Recover the amino acids of this structure.
């Protein structure tokens, strides 16, 4: 799963929120800030875990405002072992 989240999502703890939720759902991949002001997420896991994760991303932490979320589903070339924040 590849997501781009727009809105007030940088500088409000959004990446740490994503990290915590991903790890609790046993989702693997990464989150990073995009130069556009969006947050980018690449994630792998079971369909159920990814669906739950996506629901969390649509809301975000209390300090954020999610205006939009674009999701692309595809097979990832790279396999992830954990979930991390990338710079």
């Amino acid at each position: 799963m590849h997501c781009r989240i727009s809105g007030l999502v940088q500088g409000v703890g959004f990446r740490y929120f994503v990290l915590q939720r991903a790890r609790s759902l046993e989702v693997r991949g990464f989150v990073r800030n995009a130069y556009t002001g969006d947050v980018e997420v690449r994630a792998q896991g079971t369909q159920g875990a990814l669906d739950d994760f996506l629901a969390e991303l649509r809301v975000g932490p209390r300090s954020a405002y999610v205006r939009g979320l674009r999701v692309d589903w595809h097979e990832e070339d790279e396999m992830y072992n954990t979930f991390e924040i990338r710079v």
